[in-house]
Amino acid sequence: MTPADIREVVLEILADIAPDEDLGDLQDASPFREQLEMDSMDFLDIVMELRKRYRVQIPEEDYPQLVSMESTVRYLEPRLREVERVPS
Amino acid sequence: MIAPGLAHLRPDTERIVLTGVGLTAPNGNTLDEFRAHLLAGKSGVQPYEIRYFGKTLAGVCQFDALRYQTRKDVRRGTRAGSIGVYVAQEAIRHAGLDWENIDRSRIGVYVGVTEHGNVETENEVFQLRGYDYDTSFWSHHHNPRTVANNPAGEIALNLGITGPHYTIGAACAAGNAGIIQGAQMLRLGDCDVALAGGVSESIHTFGIFASFKSQGALAEHEDPTRASRPFDTRRNGIVVAEGGCLYVMERLSDAKARGAEILGELAGYAINTDATDFVLPNPDRQAECVELALRRAGLHADQIGVVSTHATGTTTGDIQECDALRRVFSGAPRIAMNNTKSLIGHAMGAAGALELAGNLGSFQDGVAHATINVEELDPECELPGLVLNEPREVGPVQYILNNSFGMLGINSVVIIGRV
Asked: How far apart are CA B288 and CA B327, in angstroms?
């Protein structure tokens, strides 16, 4: 997947776990928590959805990498480079 | 004994009254709508399908969960939690509580449940199958969804209530048990307002249908609206329903001080145990439970205006309850006896609270709603006061006696008096 594909995947996951939020104005460089009502259970949802959809195992020490869209895409890019985008 | 009951002899600080009710039933989402549909004989039972089990029948609620919850709350929580939040919010509005200024640390949430956690566990196991039962795919939401206090906790979270909250597990006596718990905690001074009653999400677990089916106790009928038929010779079991009903309960002194409209007063109650069988009821203990509630209320049997029966439509259970009622009320043939499950199915943890709510209107209109679907009354269920198929004008009702019994031999009776 390209970084653009990964961004789309993360957006789809966010739409599922934060269905009341408007994601159209999401700033990629800003932390999710500053823009969306999210708590630790929501971040675990992101980890779980990536595991379910792409079998990506994200160790706990790497969770801080998921702080923003930019850092998430950067973190996932090498892990999903060889993975085909699965349309949801 | 002292007529008209002992409740009025207590100081107002110990008299417990109902000042609001919120509910969702398969045939109504407000007290007025529910009452109107009960009087009209409108059933809320419909065709239903659930995984593994397949096609069956159920009482399904149609309330708008998003009225009081965000989509995220609904996704994260449970159906029982959503039902609880809806009926709690409705009860608070109905009671006219000044929510902005109320001390939320003095509110207690006491929610009766028949069971909790089956729905969520079944869902997780079902989805885990798609991952070859690798438990690393098991949701982190499982525990907060399945802890036994979940429905009460979701209500407290939604409303910012910081007083005590918990559920009361009491099988199908849970709705009454919630009301009783609320009253006890008000009398102990543990809270100033109790949100009390019961909820049920049980139609979302295939296990409850399969278990009743294996027990030979699941109702079947080509016309869903005629499937729940307590007291009829052709009854063949229970129609499972979801639902919820919570009351705002207060001490009479507090209700008077804020000028609240009073729906009824808790005149008496009792809970006892058969200690004889896992599932089969015991009419001796049921009769004792009714008599204990009457004795505590200081009432004679003939002072009761309406008896709301528990009967679920099983062959044995209906006969046993009628046996118990015959013993207690044999000298009181004028009493109207009806059954709400014939209209909505068995709402499990919500049943006792809902069935009481559906009868509260008789304080105002003097009418007992009917038990529908009795085409041929089982002679063993014959009771002088049964209200069959058509509502009955019964005149002024002073007391409603509400039966709710459950597995493992739990019996509960609540008596509500007109104020």
From this structure: 10
